[in-house]
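# nightly structure sweep
# worker-07 picked up a monomer target from the shared queue
# config: single-sequence mode, recycle default, output format = structure tokens
# input follows
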Amino acid sequence: MSAMVRYRISLSLILFALLSSPLLNVAAQSSEAADSRPIEFSMKNVTYHYSEPVAVHIAQLQGELVPTKSGAIVFFDDKNSFDLRLNYAEISISCNALAQVLNENVFASSDAPIKNLSIESTNNQLIMKGKLPQKADVAFETVGTLSAEPDGRIRVHSDHVKAAHLPVKGLMDLLGIDIAGLIDTKKIHGITVEKDDIILDSEQILPAPRIKGKVAAVHISGNEIVLTFGMPQASNFAAKQPGNYMAFRHSDMRFGKLTMHDADLIMIDMDPRDPFDFFLDHYQEQLVAGYTKSTPQYGLRAYTRDYNKLRPRPGSKPSTSSSKR
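# output follows
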């Protein structure tokens, strides 16, 4: 065997040994490991659509996007792929929008205990009306006040109750009957009844993406129910961003055909004169109607058109959301 052949064999064995080294394997695996940090998320003055007619107004928000499946990444095109963990937020929803959410997501089944629910407010009180299918479709009405529970749910305390348009609160008290005896909530999610109080769980009644956070305070402003989640945070990574925006940083996130590693993305309202109108189901159309810029740090700034200012699509209906203007 020639010296050159022996040299090549020895070199091959050395390279094989190096490539097989556990240290190199660990390094390769660590370099390809997914970013385990949650995506930090910040919003300012955004009208967020859950559907065409149902929207909430987010004055400000600080939180995290968390994948619903362990080891997965947030996929913007799949609202069920992530939850929104709220550290602090100020969110308002109109009485009409809340009623529609409850009718479509909580009381949609044929055996639901309440049908045709409507909600309105007057004099800082919430008025809820509907029918009780399990009680021969008798109409009911409650008038109550709102408060936040220590566990983060929302309590509607009923001061007045009517059935078949007749005041019955005093009679119910006399007979030892309460609302819990009229409304069976065992088969539904997001709502429970305790004596004369109806308790709403914001984590369960809203559609995906699900929010995770405790309601610290709640009050009525006009026809809006204003919810405060958590406590104001010491810092906000997007605080210096002017105008209305949705900002994301850290970890991996996918949108469309693109995957951004160590995300640095801010979607900026092209018209800051009113809230940033955003509909996740149509975000691609909103992006196409705007433009993007890259930063020296490989971040992306997407100047985004308001959803309600896109040209009407065939068969589309005008938005009837109650967002603030």
